[in-house]
Each structure stands twice: as structure tokens, then as C-alpha cells.
Design goal:
Length: 494
């Protein structure tokens, strides 16, 4: 065992040995958490720590570099090297738990930009310590985790923001105002798409076990998920395409593309869900997907009714068909995707992040500006909110009170795809986070590998399937994961 691996093992053993002390540090009394929220650093700047700083996290922290970046944590020190060098005074960690244990008294706020499956456990733990949190999209890996972060943020009154930066853009505000002013009439159907994935999906799980690099901590990367052998195919970018770690193209991009849909139409929980895709594998997200979510009628606004609405999603190169009157030669894809709001009076179109909204009729609405605008960046608006007291705080434009329920919508699409072999429209009880029409005796199987080969010039498949599983138990595990031993979420607030 080389020195680096010895040090990693010692770090893990030391953490486990101090588990009682660490737990005491991570689960603080409300009065202590409140005291921390009131504390300011000596120079009036926020003390920020980052977890997952090798990719998107580095960009978020650079957008906040006017503050004090005091701690950096990543399981891949090769990938994180650029961030470590950019913020040389920040203390470096492998394990976020150890970071919070050692520096909890100094950290005001936390940026979480790890793989999707660890967003919730890191953010939830930090919130219970009274830390403000900024979490990259998708907010969480599951419906339950989204609900948990929503309720914890409300209980501990911390400043929160999901990293869907379009929420702070002009496009989302304009789209919302046009819809709610009745400019396109009643909307009963929405279609949205992304040009992702741009990372590999639809892959068979690798058989080969590779040696873990000295600069990588595989155990900490896997975290609460089920352990599997290391292979370089999973990281650092490709985690998005693997179900245990990511949420595929839908989870990755819908938080950008569907935000004006959720916000403009005042959506809540869907009542029905149905998905289909290219070959669905046990471990990897499919190459292309289609999803339909149905939302019930909502309370009418002053200028427009909010009837039942269907939201259709496409990815993997699929797009909605061009509606009548579409300008010939105009690309529907705008910066990674687009949305069509089909109204009773007109059709509203916007791009990814809600950008560049326009009406198919060519008319340009002139409506009152009822939505808030910010002069700061999406990231710095969160910094601003962190410095305000809960009583006087002006919320960010993607706080967990909105981002949590919205993310439930997004990961519901993932559930619809992963349960498609039940061959029916699924009925969803959002309040209780359960499907109501999966029978106790129904089972489900998924394809482990497709067994694709070329034999004498002919394509052949020899699919390997899982054993039949109880469909309700399988669905419940997707709604609320059973974490690996040693990894536990805080309790759901009442």
C-alpha cells in the first residue's frame, strides 16, 4: 500500500473512530444553529466551503470568489487540482464529513456539486448544522430526498439555491408573465426536449475491475449507493449516465428546461406518469426517452384558467414535431433544448434556461413586470441571501421551497422511464409519495446486458435479465433509496 493509500485509510479509520464526536458536531441543537447563522466573518464576507469542486463546482465557486473560500472537498484530487490551485489558502479534504466535523464552526455556507446521488445527504447534513446551501441540479436523486431538503430548509430557515441558473434569467420571468397574463390562453399541453446526452448512455455495465488511482477515493465516491468495482467509465463526467449515480439526460437538463413550465403554470405534484425509451438497462440510462406527466387543474388566475395539463419530454435526439406555422428552416434547439407551450390563443416558444421567449404568431406581448429580477448573478444572489436574517431575507429565485417540488417533477420522469415495463400509465399520490395502481403481486425485470454481437455479419442479442422483483418494492426503492451501511439521512421533519 503506497503512502497516499495509507493516508486515505487512516483518514477513514480516524473518522469512524471519532464517529461519536462527529455525530455530535453534525447534529446541532437549534439554538446553536441559529447562533451560527447570526455569526459573521471578521471582514463581513461569507465563509464558503465546496464539496465536489473538480467540474461545475469549480465554476460556481469562482463566481463567488469575492467571498472567503475556506475549505474544498473532493474525492478526485486529480480532477480537483485546478480548483485547489486557484484557491490555495482553502483547506483540502477527501471526506465532507470530516470537513464539517473539523471546520463546522468556521463554515457559513456550503456549495454542493458532487454526483447526483450524494447531493441530498451532504446538503441535508449541512442544513441541520445551520449552514446555507447551494446545490447543483438536479437537486436530488429521488423524490423523497427532494421532499426532505424542502422541509429541512423551511425548518432551519437557511438560504438555499438550486444551480439552475436560468431561474435568475430574464427568459423565465418573461415566460411566466406572458402565461399568467393570459397572452396565449389556456394551456393544456406542453412539449419540451433537450439535445442531451452528450455523455455515454445505454452502456452495459463494465465487467473489468480496474485499479483505483492514488488520486481517487472510490469508497467515498460511491457513498450511500451500493458498492461496485471501480472502473474509469463512471467518472468524472460520465456518472450522469449511470442510474446509481446520476439521472440521465432528463434529470440533468430538465431542471434547466422545465423550470419556466413548473413556474409559469404553477404546477404541483403530477397525478399520472408514463415513460418509454430505447433499450432500458438495469445500470445505465437509455440513449433516448419520452415521458408524459399529467398535472391536475389548478386554481384559476385573474386573467387565465389553469386546466389539467400534459407535459411531454423528449431527449436523446428526439424533438416534438414542428407545429403549424413554424418558420421554415428555424432550428427548434436553442442552447441545448426548447419548450413549446400550446395555448388556446397562441403558442409560446422558449429555449433552454427559458431563454429568448417568442410567440408563434409573431406578436410581442407588452405586459406588466410582475416577476422579480436580480442585478446579481445566480450564485451571488444566493450569497446575498445568506447574509440576510431569516426574518428579513429576500428569497433567491430557485430556493428549495420551489426547487424541491420542481425537482420531484423531474425525477418523477425518471421513475416513469424506469417503470415502463409495467406497461401502463402510473397513478401518483404526490402527497404520500407512492404509486396507487401497482398491484401487490406485480413483478418487474430489467436487462442487465444486451449481449450484442456480430456473428457472420448478422447482429445478434443474448439479453441477460434480472430475476423478477416485486414491482412495489422496486418502485419504493426508486422513490426512497436504502442507503449503504454507514450513510444516513437526517429524519424527515413533521
Amino acid at each position: 500500500m503506497n503512502n497516499n493509500k495509507k493516508r486515505l485509510e487512516m483518514d477513514r479509520r480516524q473518522f469512524l473512530a471519532n464517529a461519536g464526536i462527529a455525530t455530535a458536531g453534525l447534529v446541532m441543537m437549534p439554538s446553536m444553529a441559529a447562533a451560527q447563522r447570526r455569526r459573521k466573518s471578521k471582514n463581513g464576507k461569507l465563509n464558503i466551503a465546496g464539496v465536489g469542486v473538480g467540474g461545475r463546482g469549480f465554476g460556481v465557486l469562482k463566481a463567488m470568489e469575492s467571498e472567503n473560500i475556506i475549505a474544498l472537498c473532493d474525492v478526485d484530487w486529480k480532477y480537483a487540482k485546478g480548483c485547489f490551485e486557484y484557491f490555495p489558502e482553502a483547506k483540502q479534504y477527501w471526506d465532507w464529513r470530516k470537513m464539517l466535523d473539523e471546520m463546522g464552526d468556521e463554515i457559513d455556507s456550503l456549495v454542493v456539486a458532487t454526483a447526483d446521488h450524494t447531493h441530498a445527504i451532504i446538503a441535508a447534513t449541512a442544513i441541520t448544522m445551520g449552514k446555507h446551501v447551494y446545490v447543483e441540479k438536479p437537486l436530488t436523486h429521488t423524490v423523497y430526498e427532494s421532499r426532505l431538503l424542502t422541509k429541512l430548509a423551511a425548518k432551519h430557515q437557511v438560504a438555499t439555491q438550486m444551480g439552475n441558473q436560468g431561474a435568475s434569467g430574464e427568459g423565465v420571468a418573461l415566460t411566466t408573465e406572458w402565461i399568467q397574463n393570459g397572452e396565449i390562453g389556456e394551456i393544456r399541453k406542453v412539449e419540451a426536449f433537450t439535445d442531451r446526452p452528450i455523455w455515454p448512455q445505454g452502456l452495459n455495465r463494465p465487467i473489468e475491475e480496474q485499479a483505483v488511482p492514488d488520486t481517487f477515493n472510490w469508497d467515498l465516491f460511491v457513498g450511500p449507493a451500493k458498492m461496485r468495482p471501480y472502473n474509469e467509465i463512471y467518472t468524472p463526467w460520465n456518472f450522469r449516465g449511470w442510474w446509481d449515480f446520476g439521472t440521465g439526460a432528463l434529470g440533468d437538463m430538465a431542471c434547466h428546461i422545465l423550470h419556466p413550465v413548473f413556474k409559469g403554470l404553477k404546477l404541483g405534484y403530477p397525478t399520472k406518469a408514463q415513460g418509454s425509451s430505447s433499450l432500458l438497462l438495469t445500470d445505465a440510462a437509455p440513449v433516448a426517452q419520452k415521458v408524459r406527466l399529467v398535472f391536475p387543474e389548478r386554481k384559476s388566475l385573474a386573467k387565465v384558467a389553469m386546466p389539467e395539463v400534459e407535459v411531454h419530454w423528449y431527449d436523446g435526439g428526439l424533438q416534438p414535431l414542428k407545429p403549424d406555422g413554424w418558420p421554415a428552416g428555424k432550428d427548434m434547439n436553442n442552447q441545448g433544448g426548447g419548450v413549446l407551450f400550446h395555448g388556446s390563443k397562441d403558442t409560446l416558444v422558449c429555449g433552454c434556461y427559458g431563454r429568448d421567449p417568442w410567440l408563434l404568431s409573431g406578436r410581442v406581448p407588452d405586459v406588466p413586470k410582475t416577476e422579480p429580477r436580480i442585478s446579481l448573478s445566480h450564485e451571488m444572489d444566493w450569497v446575498r441571501a445568506c447574509k440576510e436574517s431569516p426574518k428579513n431575507r429576500v428569497e433567491t429565485l430557485s430556493p428549495f421551497s420551489e426547487a424541491g417540488p420542481f425537482n420531484e417533477m423531474v425525477v418523477m420522469g425518471v421513475l416513469a422511464v424506469r417503470l415502463q415495463s409495467l406497461n401502463k400509465e402510473l397513478k401518483w399520490d404526490g402527497e404520500n409519495m407512492r404509486f396507487t395502481n401497482i398491484g401487490d403481486d406485480e413483478t418487474i425485470r430489467t436487462v442487465i446486458s444486451d449481449g450484442f454481437k456480430i456473428h457472420d455479419g448478422h447482429p445478434t442479442f443474448d439479453k441477460e435479465w434480472t430475476k423478477p422483483k416485486n414491482a412495489n418494492a422496486f418502485a419504493q426503492e426508486l422513490i426512497k433509496h436504502n442507503y449503504r451501511d454507514g450513510w444516513t439521512l437526517p429524519e424527515m421533519p413533521v
